[in-house]
Amino acid sequence: MESYANRKYLIIVLVVLISLIYSIRLLSLQVLDLSYKLSADNNATRYVAQYPARGRIYDRRNRLLVYNEAAYDLLVIPNQMNAFDTTELCSIIDFTKEELLVQIQKARKYSYYKPSVIVKQLSAKVYAVLQEKIYKYQGFFVQTRTLRKYPLKTASHILGYLGEVDENIIKNSKYYKIGDYIGINGIEKSYEEELRGVRGVKIYLVDVHNRIKGSYKDGKYDKQAIAGNNLVLSIDEKLQEYGEKLMQNKIGSIVVIEPETGEILALISSPTYNPELLVGRVKSINYSKLVNDSLKPLFNRALMAQYPPGSTFKIVNGLIGLKEKIIKPSSRFRCSFGYRVGNFYQACHHDTAFNLISAIQNSCNAYFSMAFRNILDDKKMKNISESLENWRRDVISLGLGNKLNCDLPNEVNGFIPSAKFYDRRYGRGRWKSLMLVAMGIGQGELLTTPIQMANLAAIIANRGFYYTPHIVKKIEGKDLIDQRFLVKRYTLFDSSQYKVIIEGMDKAVNGGYGSTAVYAALPNIRICGKTGTAENPHGEDHSIFMAFAPKDNPKIAIAVYVENGGYGATWAAPITSLMIEKYLCDTISRKYYENRILEANLLDRGRKEKHN
Q: Fewer CB within 10 Å, N or C, the chain?
């Protein structure tokens, strides 16, 4: 009996407790929590996303490169639709009836209760007409967003472009929703989170005719959009624009770096394109044209093209020879119109003996072939594999072979072969220094990128250190840019070794008749540089030049690549000279050189058979 009474009281307590819980929950839902009331009112409210203004982009001198312009999207909520005049709506938005019905069907497939975009990026003129008649189209409404505008039409490979998010991006991010835009390339991609801002929302009351009657609850549940951060780039727009003009009707790239900071002053990939081609409703058509263009204007050659460095690499082997005490500045090797060993012959243009400085000045193939072989056959090492790995370690310390990790996307590695690479190719212990001798003059399996070679010029200018090249100088609202761009990175060489190389590069430009880079010389600026010619089996060789200036207290380091341009002295060297003078003097003294470059059209050279 007592057990029954206990159970009776327990049941009563449970009933009271459950009733109390339900009562409290109902009170919360019906009186205290208005969010459910808001949900119940959805048939009379409209949620309109407030897209933040994307951050503007400026150059280092605060010239505006990118800003925003208003555009308008037409959206629909399928379950709120009534019958409407499709002909009239199609005439306003410039759609066919079939196109409109397809978009409505897609919206229904996505959701009957959530808004879907019918047509994107309507102009202000179309929006004005549509706003007057929107009450006729129940379930339809207009939402404001922005489009990117480019007042100067330059630096497309740096700036990048926007594109609509796909299902994969939506799935992997809580921020993005269908119809949103995201940076696809360039700065727009790598600084997406800084530029995009934070989306807001406004909740409106609408009447039975789908007309906005005011804010819901006086905006109590609205969320204000927060504009994106503005960016100040390190590029000098005037220099960027000038470089793009010099590279018109040519294929190649220019990378310019400020040695003391690692800031990129200009980055040109040619051919380029007008960035406004990839904005708005014409983007898909223009993108298809650019992708199918045989000259590949979307391909960023400055970061993604890999070339043999050619004779520019001789200064690397000169540095390593000095470091490993294989050669001295006074070491002399004989050149007899080339380098001969048995049946092997590497041609050159000289019949004399050179020391290291004069070998750089005259770009002697024989000198650097012998120096490189001596590096690989160094008796201090156990075997050639150890010598090659030691050599490779020195090369990589100069920023070659691996990505520099700049703040632009899609940078590639380049290639510096290892002992394992040759073991796989020839068999372990079955390869000798003579089989690799082409790397002594920057050919063979070596591959570098233009940005790596510009960074190498900056390293030499700095006598042994560099900052990771970067394109963003300042982020609005932040005291510092990414810490990795502020770290001084040292190579494995002594400053004294660079001094010898710099003397050779000085002589190459300023040594007078017979020096390889005399076309780069300026009367008022001491330029130090090195020419290169990269072998190309598909046409004319590629013209390469790397340099820095002035010789003392350098302000600019640069690498220029002109595909199918032949010798480095022919096109790359004078382009380099013009870029340096433009940046340091803001004027051009040798107009005949400038006109020759501007008027040159080298596009057909890539289609010609290589000369014997």
A: C
